[in-house]
Amino acid sequence: MSDEEVLAAVRDLAPALRERAAEAEALRKVPEANVKELEATGFFRLLQPRAYGGYAAHPGVFYAAVKEVAKACGSTGWVSSVLGVHPWHVALYDPRAQEEVWGPDRAARICSSYAPTGKVAPVEGGFTISGRWHFSSGCDHADWALLGGLVTDAEGRPVDMRTFLVPRAQYRIDEVWDTVGLRGSGSNDIVVEDVFVPEHRALSFGPVTALQVPGHAVNPEPVYRLPYASVFTTTISAPIVGIAEGAYEAHVAATRERFRISYGQQVAEDPFAQVRIARAASDVDASWLQLRRNIAELYDLAERGTELPLALRARTRRDQVLATERCVAAVDLLMENAGGSAMRTGPGAVQRAWRDVHTGRGHAANDPERALVLFGQSALGLDIQDTML
């Protein structure tokens, strides 16, 4: 299948995913049927290396597919984005680690929890790690986990941050996810108890940020020359844009038929309702257009083997975090004009989207001040030392 054929197959799944959105919320994880059907489209291989049967696709195709999934079911969109991007990260690892993941099973899936909450101890040949990692979306559907950790010196001072690749047999999942929004994302805790991780499965953030990683030796495709921060933060915003777009479409469809008894008129004839629809549509469109533009420019430079300027990386972070902010505001605007019935619990698409975007907004990648200050520093010519750029 070509990249575009995968995208078309994902679009065809939308009705089934939408039908199971309530089931995802009830289960507090993505239904197995959703994952199997997405796998059959080739979605999870979009960012997987060609050496292991993947497409090493243009990331714009991946994010477009995520958006389509999220329009139908926010939780499935969130999980598909997170699980779908991890093959990209594993492709940066030592070839031995890649072989351990995909050698036995090219369909192996990887979850993550990048916040360095566990304990790390250097030992001969690698590290031992222990602890509890939170918010691992889609972990029930994964065979491996990427877990963040700080490496310290003899005085306990952090000297390195690494991401440890751990097989499913060496950790357990604690089912603690019970939230207002993104209920179906199954973002549970991962618990590890004194597990040895060999050096080749412990990738430092330094080489990743510098775009000089061991995986480049076997994966020459341009997608693996993109900055981690640009790829991963866009991975968090893309489903939120999709959720907002789905809410917009549902709201417009409902408004066409809605009659407001208080004013004795069809809501579609209310000019104030029309203005809100216009504002929401513009914010969602602007969010998507900027995300797509920035990723396309980064990919084009990577494809040509050209240096990726810091100003573009800073702009990508700026627009990513503002995409989330705009989409949350757009869904708020729609909910304010949706009437009391929209607030009832049940299958309503807009109220579910409203809960989902606010929950997604809480992700660390969506902290606007921390992201926007990086762009301001770049614009002013100041020195920037930040791994999330």
Account of the protein in words:
The protein has 389 residues and is of the alpha+beta class. The protein folds into three domains: 3-107, Butyryl-Coa Dehydrogenase, subunit A, domain 1; 110-207, Butyryl-CoA Dehydrogenase, subunit A, domain 2 (Beta Barrel), CATH 2.40.110; 226-379, Butyryl-CoA Dehydrogenase, subunit A, domain 3 (Up-down Bundle), CATH 1.20.140. The protein is 50% helix and 15% strand. It has a four-stranded mixed sheet. Strands 2-3-7-6 form a four-stranded antiparallel sheet, with no helix packed on it. The chain has a two-stranded antiparallel ribbon with strand order 9-10. The two termini are 33 Å apart.
Concise overview:
This protein has twelve helices and ten strands. It is α+β, with helices and mostly antiparallel strands.
Brief descriptors of the model:
Butyryl-CoA Dehydrogenase, subunit A, domain 2; Butyryl-CoA Dehydrogenase, subunit A, domain 3; alpha+beta; 12 helices; globular; Butyryl-Coa Dehydrogenase, subunit A, domain 1; single chain; 389 residues; 4-stranded antiparallel beta sheet; 4-stranded mixed beta sheet
